[in-house]
Design a protein that fits this description.
The N and C termini lie far apart (about 30 Å). The chain has 2 helices and no strands. The protein is mostly helical. It has one domain (about 5-45). α1 runs antiparallel to α2. The chain has helices at about 5-15, 15-45.
Length: about 45
């Protein structure tokens, strides 16, 4: 699921502007954590 679809889905459930800002930063943080976790997994596979 890409970020656009996720944001669109979230907007339908959380229509207020404040909710959008909070959710956007939440999505961005989750995305970053997933990327970092993925990098760690790749590193551990190499070892």
């Amino acid at each position: 699921m890409d970020e656009q679809k996720l944001v669109k889905l979230l907007k339908e459930h959380f229509p207020s502007k404040a909710d959008h800002e909070a959710l956007r930063s939440e999505v961005v943080n989750l995305h970053r954590e997933m990327k970092e976790g993925f990098e760690e997994v790749k590193e551990s596979i190499k070892e």
